[in-house]
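One such given next:

>
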Amino acid sequence: MRLINPGRLVARLLLAALSLSAGPALAQDTSSLLPVTEAYKLSADASQPGVLKLHWDIAPDYYLYRGRMKFTAGEGITLGTAQLPDGDKHHDEYLGDVETYHHGIDARLPYTAAAGATRLQVAVQFQGCHEVDPKICYPPHTEKLDLPLPAAAAGATSPTGFGATLGKLGAAGALGAPGTPLPPEQAFRLDAVATAPDRLLLRWSMPHGYYLYRDKTELSTPGAGGLKLQPAWPAGTHHQDDYQGETVIYYDEVEVPVGIAGDLGGRHQLSVQARFQGCQDGGICYPVMTRTLQVSLPAAGAGQASASTEATGGDTASAAPHDGLLLALLLALGGGLVLNLMPCVLPVLSIKAVSLLESGESPARARRHALTYTAGVMSSFAVLGVAIVGLRAAGHALGWGAQLQQPLVVALLACVMFAVGLSMSGVVQFGASLGNTGAGLASRSGPAGDFFTGVLAVVVASPCTAPFMGSALAYAFAAPIAAALAVFLMLGVGLALPFLLVGFVPSLARRLPRPGRWMETLKQVLAFPMYLTAVWLAWVLAHQRGADAIGLLLVAMVLLAMALWWFERSRGGRPASRLWVLALLALTVVPLYYLTRMPPPSVRPVAAEGVVAYSPAKLAELRAAGTPVFVDMTADWCVTCKANEHTVLDTDRFRTLLQRTGAVYMKGDWTDVNPTIAAFLQQYHSPGVPLYVVFPKGGGEGKALPTVLTAGIVEQALTEASH
């Protein structure tokens, strides 16, 4: 059997398509058609070093194919990726989906010239058609350009090594339309300011059309060898570079919080050296630049020490990281108890309530429910405590509820809530055959179900911050490992305590209603809070990754529902029928996998009217102007944050208060990973969001408010700050 070369096959198909498109014209009068060079008049401009500008004037009733343009370089010239505008999209009868240009088109072709090159030689191939009678497509046409190189390009010496790579980056990594390159000092402005004795803020400012490489930036402290600068880079723009591969770049302006590790030794001045590299969009790449800045460090006085004490996010004046372990444990116990009343935990506790009612008056069953549920809660808090304290010790910005910054965690949790809701609605009943696998999860009444209910209660409790919790967690992040883990375990005791009391105090157990048919109705009713929780998690995911992520989540939920439905249908059937359940569950993973590869939305929602988006520079500007500022660090997944907004911050009373005190409402969004906001949370020893800090009019350190707000607390704080 003779094999056909794929390239030849494509060529044959293309020729057939062109002949078919030209066929009807053979019987028509083609004398009115313009010569190809008049139908598509090509002009070129090589006056700008590194970029060849091309322009086509397209006659009326003619068009060019975008996908049929090719560019070939002559000797001594290396071409980058051509920058072509989007064309008119439509479906061609022979070529399929195509883009075409009418009237005119401007294109830019980046290039680099070798040493000694004086001419810019480029072959430009294009193809177009006449779209009215006589309808005909011209064969591909090539024009050879031979232009003198501009002086800057012709006289340049050929860089070697890393310099050569930078030149190629300027050609291959071009992203836009450049103008005349600016001097490095104007293209990349760098400022630095100290926001605390051990923390800096670096800001690069670039005109439109310039970008900075993250991975080409190095920071050091000349003359202070014992110090190390630790930048917390914000999320940038992912860019696939032909030479550097996958890289991250920043446009316009980027603010980088920088921690100072090491003994400052009472320094009041610090020399900061930055080595960095950036490019002009579609133009040149600059050599590595080095800037040295002198930064004045503020003294760590008593005022600042008291501010750190107040900034723990606690609910009492004594809630500081330096408080004793006993007080922290009591606060953790109280915070865990209050967590049972938070709206994020109530849907899961409804599962536990049903299981307790099903236990009837049997003391043994009640104790078993209580103990296995408590084991799930305690083990989950232990794992969470080890993870948070360990990662914080390693310098990572992780706080209470930060796992919900990961879209995959949010999606998985939504699927779990959806599956539990289906079980409580009676769509599927997990039988005893799954007892060894734990697949019954929270819907089962056995030990596996009780344990998983405890785990799920901790996971969904993390978006909530109850009173007393902020102080206890702040202590945990500053205390030794053993004391920190004790605080986390005490939070678990507080969360599990109500069910422990019911299980081990017979008088309380006897107050529970007797089991009956009404319990099945109650179980089905309680499924709807599960569905609402899944909806809330989907809303959080939409803010993190946009509408496409919601589509993937819904596909995963449908596949999961199909798997559970078939699992129920296959009861008593052949074991092979259960393979379809595994296949459907495996398919459920596919949309979740693609969800993990989705980048954050390029444009986040702008701040609402009357709200200023948080940035350290803007905060410093407002404070320098003597303006009182109310800073609100929040997240879409933070239920406590949303409750505070609904009851206090998103009210006419609060807006009137801002006008009366002249204060500015500044909000930071920690829904996604954000090192700038994480640095602010660390500065005020906050374990997570919400964090509310009021900065006074006349200067001085900010005052942190409790995590659960009231209108009175906010009014008193802003009134004091405005005087």
User: Anything to note?
Assistant: The CA atoms of residues 539 and 550 lie 8 Å apart.
